[in-house]
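User: Batch of two.

Assistant: Item 1 of 2:
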Amino acid sequence: MIDEILEAAGFNAANAPLVTIFARIKDFEKLVPLAENYALRPHYLGRRHARKMRRDYNLSVMGLRRYSFSLAAARNIRIQDMHLFSNVMGRGDLMDKINDALGAGSLFIQTDHLDRLVPYLAEKNQLETGVIGRDFKALPDSAINS
């Protein structure tokens, strides 16, 4: 059903922009059929869990919640060759949390303050303004407009 909703919204899984789907652990098994076409993004629950999820489901993205963010957890995600999705929203949504996420190698940062994040990333020459594809690289404009 989710696959049908995404396709009805114009996402063609074969050449679509990257779509990550937050996958709560209790719902993960229901979402597994989407893993071939979309990047499932569960939360980090520990080193063994990250290793198992990468091995069993070939995941490419794992999220760190703002309450459990640590450089050690981020390193464990990256060691498993997964991209890091950092949520820095909430009361701690300050520049130090954004710096922590960047320093940990986050490819994605979820924030309530794009007004802070965007200029900061631009200043550091780390702002990606293109659409990211399934290979986690910016798609050429011709691929987006077709």
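Item 2 of 2:
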Amino acid sequence: MMRAFLALPLPDAAVVTLERLQQEIPVGRLVPGENLHLTLVFLGDRSVAALEDLHFALEALRVPAFDLRLAGLDCFDRTDPEALHIGVAPCPALEALQARLRATLHGAGVTLDRARFRPHVTLARFNRGLAPEQAARMGRFLAARGDFAVPAFTVRAFCLYESILTKDGPVYEVMAEYPLHLPY
């Protein structure tokens, strides 16, 4: 069994921009630059055979490339945050890609949770229950930098990743890359 997910890799320029921002984050464990990505679908634990079948279904997809802009810092649960993330400016093409992936997975017999798609890139993780002083520091950071944005970039591919859990945190390995198609 392999723990896997489908995600957008980020271009180097976006990673560098986010790593600079991460140096300002006042609390939490920073996500390493090589682990920054935008999850499209979390697959959970799957057999190698199931992932191979899925790979062939994903190779058949024809989806156009599109521009994406990361914007807006936030935590999903402000009362007891687990992570800080940067969101995504409205992007119908991203929503369409994610819906196509879910439909393709369903057609390949993959059962998924019905979780709502909330596109984001996780920048830092917190221990449960931030101390009041830590929460105050994070609040000040969000007030000052909450409107942070990364310049738009063209999404040219999505990837199938394996997530390997280690004592030092997860390691993400690209198992396959699926190019998006540029208009000619």
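Helices lie at 12-22, 48-59, 92-107, 132-145.
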